[in-house]
Write a structure and sequence with these properties.
eight-stranded antiparallel sheet
């Protein structure tokens, strides 16, 4: 059975996370730090007010104490140094096992930005361009249709695509593909009926997607989709390597992300956190037996296919190193993954203004002229207009089990939070709350 990690961010309040092509060239972006430094530094030295930071810690502790999640870990960094780091509660409530810094969690759709980086590594190698048609790499999509409605017999009304979707559209969820996370829309129901997300291989996933119409003409709207799993397929097709192997060689090993992969293996299985879901009747947390009608994978053994949309497991420290690499302009500890301008491209909105204003966006965060989408992540273009406190071009995303992260290139702030409850913490958005509580404490951004 295929891993279910790609059924990520579309569930619950996690969706509220707010996350023009730039040619690669000379680095004119602000200088960024080279590494994650865990040397001692007071919050005040990094521009934060210690007393105000206690509000963040109190709020996060309350999420655990109130039982909304059994356990949590989070880290806040600035200029590559740790400002605040906490580990709270249990990774396994039944066993009484504590959450730890090296606890392995399912990051689900926080896999997507990592797949985006894999894609951008190949972009820098000249393997593809943003305006290439997707059919250049997936010829199975040459006869795509668009569903415009249903006839009086309830049958889909289909018209040809006016043009193939582009790679830019594939990386910004504007290509028109569905996902199958829900079943309210006809195209999503087709994804479920064909079990696209349970396909036994990426090639079979592509074959099944090719038989399903697009939701709209490419580039005319935004819909959270299977697009990043398709990117994973493209990585495999370009490189001739399995996605996990390419990521390991080009991202995980250089960044020393030793616990990030598409499965734990038996030697690390004991560190994998339990995942929970709220019972729809009682509201009490329980261990889910299935997700979208399919058994939950163990994440201990290799999956049949590597899900670029959401199959990775990772740790707080590993993901913090990935995020800090982005914050440091594509390099960490002297190891360069991407050019600074390539990172800036990822952090720049690529969705036309008309599409942003007219799109429904996610179920909780609406796109507008202040909030857009870059390459495999959400971007806050005008924070104050958006009603938030972070810096311009803050890049973010989250996962189905409540994990969240953001990278703020303006203030050089990184935040990573890890919980394991499907649908987030229920009734509120932990990621947005953490942002407000973080930035109200950043009283000296000049430091």
């Amino acid at each position: 059975m295929r891993t279910f990690g790609h059924w990520a961010l579309g569930i619950g309040a996690v969706l509220a996370l707010q996350g023009t092509a730039l040619a690669a060239g000379a680095d004119t972006s602000p200088a960024r730090p080279a590494a994650v430094h865990r040397s001692a530094a007071t919050p005040e030295q990094l521009g934060f007010d210690s007393a105000r930071l206690k509000r963040l810690d109190a709020a996060m502790a309350d999420v655990v104490a109130s039982g909304r999640v059994p356990g949590m870990s989070y880290v806040l960094m600035r200029h590559g140094k740790v400002v605040d780091e906490k580990v709270l509660g249990l990774r396994d409530a039944a066993a009484g096992a504590p959450m730890q810094k090296d606890t392995i969690v399912r990051v689900y759709s926080m896999t997507k930005p990592i797949t985006g980086v894999a894609m951008m590594i190949l972009y820098e190698q000249g393997k593809w361009r943003l305006d290439d048609p997707v059919t250049k790499f997936i010829p199975e999509f040459k006869n795509l249709k668009v569903m415009t409605g249903v006839d009086d017999q309830g049958r889909p009304i289909l018209v040809p695509v006016t043009r193939p979707p582009t790679m830019r559209e594939l990386m910004s969820h504007t290509a028109g593909f569905g996902y199958g996370l829900g079943d309210k829309l006809p195209v999503d129901r087709m994804f479920r009926d064909k079990q696209v997300l349970a396909a036994p291989s990426l090639q079979e996933m592509v074959n099944r997607v090719a038989d399903i119409p697009l939701m709209y003409q490419p580039g005319t709207s935004w819909y959270y989709s299977v697009a990043v799993d398709l990117q994973g397929y493209i990585v495999e097709k370009i490189t001739g390597q399995r996605l996990g192997d390419f990521m390991a060689k080009n991202i995980f090993e250089p960044l020393k992300m030793k616990d990030t992969a598409f499965y734990t293996g038996p030697e690390r299985a004991s560190r994998l956190s339990q995942v929970y879901v709220a019972n729809s009747t009682t509201g009490k947390l329980e261990v889910p037996k299935e997700l979208f009608g399919n058994p939950m994978p163990t994440y201990v053994t290799p999956p049949p296919a590597d899900s670029g949309g959401g199959g990775l497991v990772s740790t707080l420290g590993d993901y913090a190193r990935f995020a800090q690499m982005l914050a440091a302009g594509g390099q960490l500890d002297g190891v360069r993954i991407l050019n600074p301008r390539t990172v800036a491209l990822m952090e720049t909105n690529v969705v036309p203004q008309s599409v942003l204003v007219n799109s429904n966006g996610t179920s909780a965060a609406r796109f507008n002229d202040a909030i857009g989408f870059g390459l495999d992540g959400m971007v806050v273009m005008d924070p104050l207009k958006a009603g938030s406190l972070e810096g311009r071009n803050t890049f973010s995303w989250g996962g189905a089990a409540g994990t969240w992260f953001w990278v703020d290139p303006t203030n050089d702030v990184v935040f990573v939070g890890m919980v394991q409850r499907l649908g987030g913490t229920g009734g509120d958005d932990l990621g947005l709350a953490a942002r407000t509580l973080t930035y109200q404490a950043l009283v000296r951004p000049d430091r």
